[in-house]
Amino acid sequence: MTRRWKYMLCGILSLVLLTAAACPVFAKEAQTAVEVNFKACDFSPEQPDTDLYCYQVAEYDENSQLVFTKEFEAYETQPELFLNANASEQQELAETLAAYVKDKEISGTAHRVNVTENYLVSGLTDGLYLFVIDSVETETEVYKFVPALFFLPGLDESGIRQETVSITPKHSMETRETETKSPETPTTEKPTSPEPGTVPSAPNPPSGERFPQTGMRLWVLELLIGIGCIMLITAWGAGRRRPRKTKVMGIALIAGICCFGTVAGMYGHTLMEERQAAVGMQDIISDIRSEQPAVMEDVQNLNAGAKRPDSCPADENGYIGILEIPDLSLELPISSSCTLDTLKYTPGCLDGCPWNGTFILGAHNYRSQFGRISGLEIGSTVTFTDIEGIRYTYQVADITEAEPTEVQAVRDAGHDMALFTCNWSGARRTIVYCDLK
After folding, report:
1. CB atoms within 10 A of CB 246
2. Separation between Cα atoms, residue 48 and residue 378, nearest integer Å
3. pTM for the structure as a whole
4. Which CATH number fits domain 33-175: 1.20.120, 2.60.120, 3.90.1690, 2.60.40?
5. What tens digit of pLDDT does each residue of 181-190 get?
């Protein structure tokens, strides 16, 4: 066997190994979910919406040893504190970690929840987790939730792994003190104009809110393909000048094949994730349909005058309804959460609902999800049916693109619904605005 063929054989073997390494589907990690049992709290404030923050404190390595994540590595020398803690000690640790998170300004995965309905946090891997829930305030009362610390997976009495673990958040209620203020005589102040040479203060900067990443960044693939082409051309050129350049040829050939192997692995991984998500969504739609009441007539006036919650009601699995786009033959379940974790499986609701603000829905740019919405025509029909069986019919009003940070601009655009996904490059977001018919 000549030296050139040896190098080619090494390159092919490298391609196979790299493709396998680039496809996590060959060693998919088990995932679990946590159901937060808010119904057991048995209270119903007028404004029930708040934020739940999920933090992964530690995970298990290949030897089933507890390894703390980067944000909590200050505790890596004390794993026995968590492993051997009883219920009261575990609660103290939860409060300590919650204070640590606040002090260090650690950002967790945010979930918008309704404290009168159960909520499912899915897509979690095995390890130690901390849940912190913001308080809920009314005019007369304040409901404060106690941080929760727990291990995944859960085990039943027989020691069998539980894919879904249920926790009931502890809470306390405090009465707000109302102060009576004596009326004051209004005073009129003249507006002061800025002195010459001074610059008026600028408005507050954006809050940093971003649309989630819902597609692969194309520049990574372009870079790998470009490097791969250069390496293969270098190998071809070196091969024509043998025997002095055979080493250069071999190295360039292997590097080029590795680049193309990585591209193939990333693309294959994306296709596999899309296929798995499509199969899972069909099961979810069947579950929603089985529990959904008969579909009512399209709501034209959003039940004007009727008191509705600020967010869409969700079922016990956290789904708020089904979105249909007939022109694309799409029928998609919509989750109440729109985070990187939930978007791996289904589209989600980032903000609003049909009767409150702009209803913003996001999904991956898979062909089976929102990958083709840029091809819709103005006037195309889009329908959303909530879990109560009420159907809302929209029509496409505008199609544009926005920066990932322009969430507030989409809210303020004046449309009833906005669908978003990553554009072909993954750097911007395709926005489809819709209005109720």
Report:
1. 17
2. 37
3. 0.50
4. 2.60.40
5. 444 444 444 4
